[in-house]
Amino acid sequence: xxxxxxxxxxxxxxxxxxxxxxxxxxxxxxxxxxxxxxxxxxxxxxxxxxxxxxxxxxxxxxxxxxxxxxxxxxxxxxxxxxxxxxxxxxxxxxxxxxxxxxxxxxxxxxxxxxxxxxxxxxxxxxxxxxxxxxxxxxxxxxxxxxxxxxxxxxxxxxxxxxxxxxxxxxxxxxxxxxxxxxxxxxxxxxxxxxxxxxxxxxxxxxxxxxxxxxxxxxxxxxxxxxxxxxxxxxxxxxxxxxxxxxxxxxxxxxxxxxxxxxxxxxxxxxxxxxxxxxxxxxxxxxx
Length: 287
Description:
With 287 residues, the chain is α/β, with parallel strands linked by helices. It has helices at 52-67, 75-86, 91-104, 112-136, 149-158, 171-181, 202-212, 227-235, 255-263, 276-283, and strands spanning 23-24, 36-39, 163-166, 189-191, 220-224, 239-243, 268-270. It has a 7-stranded mixed sheet with strand order 1-7-6-5-2-3-4, sandwiched between helices. α1 runs antiparallel to α4 (112-136) and α2 crosses α3 (91-104). The chain is globular and about 60 Å long.
């Protein structure tokens, strides 16, 4: 069952669930009661790093040209597929996957930590102007947030639903960028890999959140635009809401994200949080 009709004379935030842009993928979606909410950061809350997949593909191509002899493979397609498959994993894990592939294909892989630094240097060139603009004028934060997310976070907070952030981006960067965007106040905890410390996984963080807060899986709702957190939350019985955000346009659905999220087990698909009131209704939190 899918609900995608809209009414032009009714604000989207006030649309009932039957008329909202919420797409119900799985009729077995948990319906709560929900006691805690979990959010991915990049592409779900923040748009500061919009364009990072393309930057990572370019960085990987740099590395492949150096460390892997030409073998006729379409390297651009290979890198894009690798990035898509590993979205949501820690950056170091993504670069370890790249090193493993280089070795498997007969190349001589370098240190994944050096690969990570090469990518981050490229990324900083791409996003530094956004960070500088935010530091100089915090009012610009709205244009670097997924639409509706602040209203939705505020609504959850007012209803006593604690929220956490979980990201594959280094935790120190998430903390700094959440503060710049003014959304750090909504989150009780921020989980992410510590720079230089291997072994972080979203699954372990989710298990920790459930255990620490005495939650059963179906009492957790999670919002994310990557396949990792989507699959992890669905696996523990939580409600996995896929945020198929079109980051460049700040409206509409990214078809590639939608496909990957559905394949990973998303119960619902949303483009953003503009229909936050309908989301609250679905979650049983509209009163």
